[in-house]
Amino acid sequence: MTIRKRLRVLSVLAFAAICGGGAARIGAPPVSLVRVPDGGIQPQVVERDGIVHLLYFTGDPGGGDLNYVRSLDYGRSFSKPIRVNSQPESAMATGNVRGGQLALGASGRIHVAWIGSGSALPRGASNSAPVLYARLNDAGTAFEAQRSVSQLSWGANVGADGGTLAADSMNNVYVFWHAQPPGGKGENTRRVWLARSSDGGRSFAKETAVNDETTGVCGCCGMRALAGADGTLHVLFRSATDLVHRDMYLLTSNDRGRTFAPEKISEWNIGACVMSTEAFAQSANGMLAAWETEKQVYFSRVTGERAAPIGASGTGENRKYPSLAVNLRGETLFTWTENMAWKKGGSLAWQLYDRDLKPQGPVGKMDGVPVWSLVAAFAKPDGSFAVIY
Known about the structure:
Radius of gyration: 19 Å
CATH topology of the domain at 50-319: Neuraminidase
């Protein structure tokens, strides 16, 4: 594989001095920090079978490109980037919640979904931005031409948003977003929509609404989807009931996306769009989910043996954009951002937890998260972790 650029993996304890090095122990296991290649933002990462798959954004936040790279040495170096979007500048990053997301499906194929930019074609309903999808080709050398999977959902007011996707080992691919039904108005009429493929992304059925229409959906909030190892499908979204109940909901499907059972897992009453994101991670004891409530981030085990929500330790301002990773020993790394706002970067923070979800060691913090960006994390086979920012 051609290697384009060797990144420095910076020591956590020595990072303030800007010196390179390996991971530094802040307890056990160690954590490394890795900057996104090419000065990119909004990393999305999946590690499987010794390969780290990374998606990131470059260019103008209002209209740029999604890039895909691989790493065979757990973030010390990356392959030459492959542009995901076949139409240049048809992805967007403005607002942190609208960037691309990736999933690893059957036979190791990479699938990507995103909300199109203002110039992306074809346009969605009422000339709004489309929900776009592309998959890596059979040879793994390029992405097939991007396609719109949104056909029926309405784009008035905010338009389609919250694009996410999941893929399973049975060749199913699920692309989700939220938008209004035809003729709908306002956040209280927004629905969660699903376009489903049963042939590995070769074709998609027309979208269907999958949530209770009485909940509404927070108009500029992100969503997250994940297919568990057993094929169970999970989706996190934020409601907008009566425009003030911005609660976190978990949708679960045991029949591969045909029906969903909703569960409210966190309440938040606020009459504003909070522009939040969510995260999932699979552990041996069940699925972990993470979200934001009242400027604090939380995570919890939402399947198997349930656990009460755990708030991030220590103190920090405006905690947002959580991420989770679990190693083979069942230890969890919880990461998030602090002090970020519209057109404003911030810092990243992280906390380790043992297999019983008890915090281990201090909260780590570091400045340097760019404007419109997020953080992502993955576990290495030796039990250590890496945070990409």
